[in-house]
Amino acid sequence: MPEPISRRRPLLHEARCQTCSLSSLCLPLALELGDVSQFDAIIRRRAPLKKGEPLFRQGDTFTSVFAVRSGSLKQLTTEGAGNDQLTNFYLPSELVGLDGIDEEHYPGSVIALETTTVCEIPFDRLDLLSEELPELRGQLYRSMSKELRDDRRMMRLLSRKTADQRLASFLITLSDRFRRRGYSPYSFRLSMSRADIGNYLGLAVETVSRILSRFQNQNVVAVSGREVNILDMPRLISLAEEEEADVSPH
Amino acid sequence: MPEPISRRRPLLHEARCQTCSLSSLCLPLALELGDVSQFDAIIRRRAPLKKGEPLFRQGDTFTSVFAVRSGSLKQLTTEGAGNDQLTNFYLPSELVGLDGIDEEHYPGSVIALETTTVCEIPFDRLDLLSEELPELRGQLYRSMSKELRDDRRMMRLLSRKTADQRLASFLITLSDRFRRRGYSPYSFRLSMSRADIGNYLGLAVETVSRILSRFQNQNVVAVSGREVNILDMPRLISLAEEEEADVSPH
DNA sequence: CGTAATTTTGAATACATTCAAAGATGGTGG
DNA sequence: CCACCATCTTTGAATGTATTCAAAATTACG
C-alpha cells in the first residue's frame, strides 16, 4: 500500500543515525561518517508503536528490516490452533525481521511490549547499499551470524537446562543486554509478562512465577512486579550453569 | 598449517559447480553460467572426511564456510562439563559455518557422520565476490535467513512439542530434505545414532528408542537399525502436529 | 473505584528421565 | 571368515521435574 509522498514532515525526534546514541551498537556501527549519511538516507522513521501494537504480522509481505530505537518487542510465531511460540525479544539497536528475507513473508508477528520506536530499513535499498559499502555488508553478515549463534544458545537452553537454569540464564542475558546499552545490569524493568517469559523459555506461567519466588526467597534477586533487582550475581550465574548440591537448606 | 602448493592435482571426482548435481540447491543456484565459474574459482575441494572426523573444531579460527557435497555432518557445541548440544545436521547442498562469521572462531565442532565431502568457500573471497554478484549476495542473505527460520522452528519444537511430536517432526523434516534432493522421501538411512537424535531433539536416548518402537508397532514407520521406512505419512504428519484422541486402542 | 487481567500459591497428575540390564550391531584382528 | 569386544539400541521399573487444574491475591487500567 503506497504511502503519501509527504513523508518529509519533521518528526518530533528528528532521528538521524549521526546523532543516535545507539550508533555504536546498531547496523552502521562499522561505517565511516560519510557512509553513515548514505545509510541514514535510506532509513524511514516510523511513528511510535503503542504497547500491544504489531510492527508487522505473521504472513505480511517482507519489505524491510527494522532497527529498534527505543522500547522493546516480542516475536510470535503462530502455528495451528492458537498455539503461539515466542521466539525472541528485541531491545534497542537490535535488528528485527532478518528471518523474513528468504521468503515473501515474515514468519512471525512482532509486537511492541511498550511504547516503541523503530527505524525502518527497506531491504532492497539496504542490499544495494551493501554492494557499495563493504563495512555495511560485513555488519549485516555479522548481525545474522550473531543471531544464529544466539538461536543455538537458546536451543541448548531449551533442550538441556532445568527450569531454574532457564530463568537464571534469562535474567543474566537480559542483564547483560542492558549493561551493553548503558543501563544498570542489576536493576531493570521487565517489559514482558510472566506469560511471555514462560512462553519464551518453554515453561508454564506458574513455573516462572514459582521460580522467581524461590530466587527471591534465596536472596538471589528481589522481584516486585516487573521490577527486578539482582542481588547476588555470582550465585545467579552459578544457578544458570548447573544444578549444584543444595548449599543452604535455609 | 600451510598446504603444499601442488593442489592442482586432478581429484578423482574433479568437482566443479558447473557439473555438480546439487547446483540447483546450493549457493550458486541463482547465478548465471558465466558467474558460476567465477564462484567456482574461489572454491577449494577438500579430501573426503571419514566418519567421525571433524571438519573443524569449536574454537578454531573462522576462515571459511563449507557446502556439503555428499554425506552428512553434525554440529556440536560443548559448554561446561562434557555437556554437548547437537544443534544441527547438515545434508548435501547445505552451508556449514555461517554462525562463525561474526566472531573469530567457530562456535561449535562439525563432525562427519559418514564419509563426507565438502566444498570449502573462503569467506573473505566469498564476501568480495558477493560485492560483484548481487545474485550471490542475495542467495547468501537468503541462506542465512532460512537458517534463522529453521532455528525458530526448532525452538518451537523444543519448547512446545511432546517427545512423540518431536520424533514425528524430525522424521518428516528429514523425509522432506531427502525428497528435495531427489531421494525417496519414504525410505532412507539415518546417518546419525539414536544418541545424536536424542541430543538434537532434547530427549534421552531411551525415549527416542521407545517412541520409534511405538511408531513401529502402530505401523506408522518400519525401522530396522538405521533404515527407516515411512509407511503412513499422513498419520506421521498428524502425530507431529498435535496429540489427538487415541484413535485405535486396538 | 470496580472489573479484568495478571500473578502467585497449592495439590494432584503426567510425561520424560534415570537407573539397570539385556539384546543387537558392527568393526577389528586373529 | 569368524569370533570377540566395544558400542549402540531396546526394554522395564522407579523416580522426579514441570505441568495442569484450581483458586486466591495482587495489579493494572478505564
Automatic annotation (TrEMBL), chains A, B:
Q: Which CDD domains match?
A: CAP_ED, HTH_CRP
Listed PROSITE patterns: HTH_CRP_1 (PS00042), HTH_CRP_2 (PS51063)
Ranges for the HTH crp-type domain? 161-234
Q: Name one Pfam family in it.
A: cNMP_binding
| Highest taxon above the source species | Bacteria
Q: Please indicate if the UniProt record lists Secreted as a keyword.
A: no
Record-linked Gene3D superfamilies? Jelly Rolls (2.60.120.10), Winged helix-like DNA-binding domain superfamily/Winged helix DNA-binding domain (1.10.10.10)
Which keywords appear in this protein's UniProt record, sorted alphabetically? DNA-binding, Transcription, Transcription regulation
Full protein name: Fumarate/nitrate reduction transcriptional regulator Fnr
Gene that this sequence comes from: fnr
